Batch of 4 targets.
Target 1
Amino acid sequence: MSNATVVKSLAKVLVAAAWADGAITTDEMNSLKDLLFHLPGMTAKDWEEINIYVESPVNDAERQRLVEELQAQLASPDDRTRALQALDQMVRADGTVTAAEQAVVDEIKAALQTGRPAPAHRWNVFARNSVQQRTQTVSQAPNREIYLDDFAKNKIFYHVSQRLPSADGAEHIPNDDLRKFSLAGGLLARVAYVDREVSDGEYQEIVRTLQQAWGISPAAAGVVAEVAVSEIGKDLDYYRLTRLFFESTSEDERLRFLDALFAVTIGDGHAAEEEIEEIRTISHGLLLSHDQFIAAKLKIPRELRTNN
């Protein structure tokens, strides 16, 4: 059984379990998407199917069928290991795991390990607990009268949207585009900040990349870069950041953006090993393949790649 098949089946079981009480709020749905999007082995093609699947309620009969199908697919030790790793990642995505939550996880894992069916109602509890914890994490943002949802989910966009209208020489940018640029700025700054400092060269590379990739003015690119650099050390939500950027870009844009991430690393003269590993994490988070990551990495001359 392929890794992708197992992950997709597991994701469908978790979607069905989250719908067990017949309703999911918008915030819960976004939280569920965050968790599923980052399951180990998720691909862009599989995400297209899962993302649509999340939107529709799942009845009891289908829920039971999905659990049985997953159980049948977990015949080999490798497949069971993949499923167990995915469950561990999901339950720990947002930090603390209570004793009650761990007990549910342990019960499901024990069933998977022994080949016994994991009870459908335990999947329901696991999914709801994970989604609620994720929703709570995302909602823990200071109250704002305007752009509250954007502040909670994309703090860089919130601050850019407040500053851009008064910036000299900055054009009007539609909100959808501005969100994308802000997400890009956050990921670019994340790489530059790996060593807890953004050099002038790295900062200028972020500005240049925003201009070249999307044709925005130097003034607008400067505002996005300045806000991104100032916010990157303030516990930005990596799960939401990468998923939203993925959903707002094409694969071609994401591949070109991978090149831009590497360009930022040599803004201070060389690409450090820690920066390259951060790009590897981001590449994985954007559902790009290992081969695509390596191809982008090799565009940086070897002498500029520290210890690589």
Note: The chain has two domains: 3-139, 148-304.
Target 2
Amino acid sequence: MPTLISPFHLDERLAALPVSGRRLDVDVAGGAMPGRLVGLYRGVASAVADAVTDGPLVVVSGDCNTSLGTLAGLQRAGVDPAIVWFDGHGDFHTAATTTSGYLGGLALALLVGDDDLGLAAGVGLTPIAEERVVLVDARDLDPAERVRLDASAVRRLAVDELVEATLPPGPIYLHLDVDVVDAAACPGLRFPAADGPSPDAVVAAVERVLGSGRVVAVGLACTWGPDHLDRPETVDLVQRLRLDRD
């Protein structure tokens, strides 16, 4: 799979990510957040639009919000994907519900149009309908986030429940935040989530999605802390997920 690397966690430039590929060294503009991210994700969108081929494209970064640029780029190339989103968290907060203020907790909500910050609109993303989204194994949910998900049309499945029949129709953007893996098997995460699936269970589920033949892009969010990104166990997990291949 051709691989693009956006070496950032939000606007923090990362020295290393545990994959090889084409590194997108986009300059981050000055000013306030989240405006600094708009230019970064526009750069990702342009690179994705230019790199779309008949096979899946992999976009690697240090967070989940890079998916805004990936999906905007797919749309710019004429692809209208549904979303299969692996994550230990819901990423379904808005600016009004988040208690931490962490923008990474808004990623999936931004993709479906809950964009009170204007971030997705600034990147040029057309919202994805909630009924075209499958959220896999989100187990660490804040109360307000759980209420929002329960009221949404987003489908929620466990890793083992994800099979061909449960996938959304049409082309698929497959998003994989490594913190979907149980925290005990994935040390060094920024936001570890306990009581999750094993790496083998996640690998098997990812392979089932890829086996559909409908995946147009994979987003790999390497949400380890910066001091853990180049450690052998980190590289090993990415290799087990089989998303470092050309």
Note: The chain has a mean pLDDT of 93.
Target 3
Amino acid sequence: MSCNHHLLAAVALLGIAACSNTASHQLPPLQSVPLTTERTLVAAHALGPDLGNPALPANLQHYLDGGYGELVIGPGDPYSSHSTEGNPSPLLGPTARMIMRFAAVGDLQIGDDESPTRVGFLDSKSAASAALRPQDPYMCVLANATVRTVNAVNRMLPIDLVLVGGDVLDSAQENEANWALGILSGGADVECDSGADDDLVPGPDNDPKDPFWPEGLSVPWRWVPGNHDMLIQGNLVVDEGRIADALGDVAPLGTRDYQQGGAIVQRSVVSDPQRSPLSPVQMMMKMASHGDGHGLSLTQAATGHASYFFDVAGTPLRFLIVDTVSKTGGSGGVLRRQDLEAYLRPAMESAQREGKWVIAFSDHPFDDMGQANAPLGMPVADPVSQSEWVEFLGHYPNLLFAVSRRAAHGQSLMQPPGKHPYWAVFNGSQSEYPHQFRLFEVWDADSGYVMLRITGVDVSVEGDPVAAQGRQRAVIDYTSTWAGTLPASADQRNVELWIRKP
């Protein structure tokens, strides 16, 4: 990025441009955080009235003045108990033991909000409600807040593993991937800025375009691939023309310009060679070659399909990571029959032979699976349908839970005709209110059952005023009614899910 050697006049809300940022300081680790069984964070303002799109700088101040972004402390959420066989749920036996504790963090949406590929002009209250959000420039610092919170939980209640994804990124760009890997790994400054060198508030460590020192996860993590990780804007296949567009200086559908106070512009975008989108194989190779590969091998990455599995030493557990990204475009989940037969069936068959209990993870839930969705996706010859996927998993009595991502937490009992019942579990988005990840405990209940205890954790922004600003803007996105999604109901948040032991 280049530095502007003068200060521009202050412009509405999103600050002023200034010279290159200085080195950052490291935030102190969080020693502990409350779980949502103890307390919750609740939006203080009721939903609405709508004062205009809060992602536009001219409108955002009205919401801030009206308290739309404020949170208050609410009562804790007790566990609700659910069994595949109905209520009353079983009980833990005298020698019940926890087999494993892991966390799942989904939809970080670490994005370049100044990229020419952005689609700000499409933003609306409909299906495109996430095209432009007031918290967009804060996704990196919010992701870092999530990491700090996970590490705090690990200090309180040791975690064996973190599942990260899908949609760690926003638009499959190389700079986004570099930022994400830097935040998740720690050890060096991360500066989530592209094009011009923006300093929204003069000085270091006080705005989301400043470099910051990420703590990095203290727990091993595994990647769950999502459509935004491998497709431009989560929809478009990476090709030469679109790479050229991303590296250019025109944003036909509107991107942020912080030289104009965060206004949405089409032309005169400052180009940046780090914005190059990566193809699925390139993105998988980048992930597989980083650290321990985060579950993905170079050999697997070269195939262009990112399904894999791993067993947890000392336990009967196998995690099956399912790549549901449509490689022909479109945001919906696509699993080709050729990939199911090549990767997933052998993993399930061997798990059954070896007495492994399987937990499947994917970006897309079962009801967002099928043919590549038009008009942005091209049809494939052999898509696995929703019902086929549900029945495939139900064929295996050692499949316990199928975890995927949705806007809000939840679960559904899957009962394919004549097959094994199991739980579909939905993990909420990290990029939107209420900014919760979930803690999972797998218990051998010593009563003929396995129990999955799931606890929500509110992301802490303690000691990080920039992340606090980002969370405030995400609350405004919700209370303004522009976010388009609602938090989970009480019986879908903290839960204990029971299933017969294989």
Note: The domain at 39-500 is CATH 3.60.21.10 (Purple Acid Phosphatase; chain A, domain 2).
Target 4
Amino acid sequence: MYRKEMIHIFFFYWVPLLCYMILIFYLSHQSKPFGGLIVEPADKVLHFIEFFVFSFLALRAFQGSSLSIIRKHFLFISIIFSIFYAFSDEFHQAFVYNRRSSVLDFCADSLGVLVGSYLFRNNVL
């Protein structure tokens, strides 16, 4: 039964986060995601929403961990993990043709993480 429970935890909590991470990486690797239709400053709103959702998925995954130490500190761990992924996403874009890394995009990503985490922690979501 323990093995079935672990498989359920993995698919229910971690697969959505991993799929979302792959989607972010894929879109970041495109030289003109969304056909270049989205321009500044509207893209900052998309960055905020993108990592708002990311933080929710990360919080779910870490809160549902089978390790009690991770469950105990899930909020801190998921915020650090999400902000690190936002940083790695911007770093990755620096090496993609027709893309650039932006501190403002990273700030919008991080703000999305912090607002999403705050709302999740206070049971708004």
Note: The two ends are 31 Å apart (CA to CA).
